[in-house]
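Let us practice reading a record.
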Amino acid sequence: MPRTRGLRIGGRRLPYTASEKVRPTMGMVRLAIFNIVGPKIADARFLDLFAGTGSVGIEALRLGARSATFVEERTECCRIIRRNLELLGLESKAVVVRASVLRYLTSARDREQEFDVIFLDPPYDRGLVEKTVRKLCDSSGSLLAPGGLILVQHSRREPVKKDSLPAAEMLSEVKEYIYGDTRLTLIRQAGNLCRRPTDD
């Protein structure tokens, strides 16, 4: 039976249901994420894909993000995210979407929405990392705002190869940081990675 544990964010201990399928981003990695993103988080529109407990998106709001959208397939995780947002008084700045990430990205072209920072933390070693980044760029023509960035948390055994990404020539930077079994990959764009050129 799953056990209820505590996840510490901003000095507060927030509950989550522990199970093999829920792997919250731990404090050291969460700190590294926001050190990498840096001042970009201020007033950012933040997208948290494979949100899990929502710890990264919640921390983004706590550090000054304008808004956060959490995309998570599991009903129990969505309930935990909503409850923790309410505990911190952040629910007015957040949207929780219960959907598979790939389905959400497929339908993203129908929404006039842009994000300054897109974070994704797919299940480790499932082949979802490059598939999701490709979907992010192939299917969501305007999801990443100009000058935005993508940050991927994934297994160190599953690297992101720059030359395999769509529009790789438009990337200004792909940097990697390794913390134990975890790899963080930062993708910056020179123009807009996810926009297709148009014929004028």
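A brief commentary: Helices lie at 27-37, 55-62, 75-87, 101-106, 129-139.
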